[in-house]
Amino acid sequence: MDTERKMLIFTLLLTAVCSPVFSGEWKATVVKDLDALVTSCVVVPCSFTHGGGLLPNSRLRGLWHRQDKFDQFIYHEDQTRVLDNFKERTQLLGRLGENNCTLEITDMKDHDNGPFCFRVEVVRKETNEPTKDKFSFVEDCVQFKMLHDAPKPVLTPPKTAIEGKPYTIICSVTHTCPSHLPKLTWNRGTEEDITEIHKQHHGGNWEATSTLTFVAEAKDDYTELTCTAEFYGGRKESSTTVTLYVKRSENYNHIIIPAAVGIGTAVIFGLLCVFMVKKYKKRIAELQSQVRAGPDSEDEKRRNRFL
Ligand SMILES: *[C@@H]1O[C@H](CO)[C@@H](O)[C@H](O)[C@H]1NC(C)=O
């Protein structure tokens, strides 16, 4: 009796410990709150585990429905069962066989705010009918905060550009639709001057970044740099502008050139002086010797005449 009881407890414990491993647990991880830009698109990250064991895509059916209405589908593989308002606007980006229930909604409308919940059904291979293994994850649903104005790009420029040196300016904008990125454009620069990066922030929030690099010239001083973000759907855009200040590069031409001219002039003038002095010294010496020689010869002549 005693050992029987012990065995029973042991078996129960073993079952409790092992059952989640063997049969799996019905659990969904869905981003709960997400910004959504009206007219654009949104991607809801979602993953789940189910009690049906390892199953391929074909044995799983994923559905998204309104939280309180289990028959109002915003996504269903059978389009005829999708609410009119959501027809052709939703698709599952994730592969169910990889436990990925990521949902995309395009052409967001103001009243699409949710909450929406994911439901998974295990279907029979032959009939495609759901088995008793199905689950609506009504505790983990997504709700949208509707944005009517596109988020503004943020520009992070260095303080000033320096003439003749490369100048780099970064434009970034946040969004929630990684399947259709916002387009970032500049009012100057060519394709080679621009690099784009896309990275994930927390939850379903993403950041698109465009970096523009060019060599600053004096003529760029006080010009405007504008970065424009155009969001998918083509009806929302926003831009940010900064004024560029270009610092003249550190050269001393304004000192060196006049100085060189000054020194050059001085040298030429100096040489001229030396030349002139030499010439006149020679001339003076000549004159002096003439003056000295002149009367002597006159005297001599006079003396010769008297003799
Ligand atoms: C789920 O699918 C989406 C869309 O294909 C993908 O971007 C995401 O990385 C996937 N998530 C995981 C956890 O694999």
Task: Outline the structure in words.
- The chain is an alpha+beta fold.
- It has helices at 2-23, 253-306, and strands at 27-30, 33-37, 42-44, 46-49, 60-66, 69-75, 90-92, 103-105, 116-123, 130-147, 154-156, 161-162, 166-175, 183-186, 194-200, 206-215, 223-231, 236-244, 246-247.
- The protein folds into 2 domains: 23-147, Sandwich (Immunoglobulin-like), CATH 2.60.40.10; 154-247, Immunoglobulins (Immunoglobulin-like).
- Residues 10-23 have low confidence and may be disordered.
- The protein binds 2-acetamido-2-deoxy-beta-D-glucopyranose.
- The site of 2-acetamido-2-deoxy-beta-D-glucopyranose has 5 residues, from loops.
List the helices and strands and how they pair.
Blueprint: H1 2-23, E1 27-30, E2 33-37, E3 42-44, E4 46-49, E5 60-66, E6 69-75, E7 90-92, E8 103-105, E9 116-123, E10 130-147, E11 154-156, E12 161-162, E13 166-175, E14 183-186, E15 194-200, E16 206-215, E17 223-231, E18 236-244, E19 246-247, H2 253-306
Parallel strand pairs: 2-10, 12-19
Antiparallel strand pairs: 1-4, 3-8, 5-6, 5-9, 7-8, 9-10, 11-13, 13-16, 14-17, 15-16, 17-18
Residues 47, 93-94, 100, 102 line the site of 2-acetamido-2-deoxy-beta-D-glucopyranose (NAG).
Please work out how many helical segments DSSP would assign.
2
Helix content: 10-25%
What gap, in angstroms, lies between the N and C termini?
A: 181 Å
Order of helices and strands: HEEEEEEEEEEEEEEEEEEEH
Number of strands: 19
CATH level-two architecture of the largest domain: Sandwich
Poorly predicted runs: 10-23
Which word captures the global form? rod-shaped
User: What is the mean predicted local confidence, pLDDT?
Assistant: 85
* CATH fold field value of the largest domain: Immunoglobulin-like
For the record, the CATH class of the largest domain is Mainly Beta
Give the neighbour order of strands across the main sheet.
2-10-9-5-6
Task: State the major sheet.
Answer: 5 strands, mixed
Overall number of structural domains = 2
**Helix-and-strand structural type:** alpha+beta
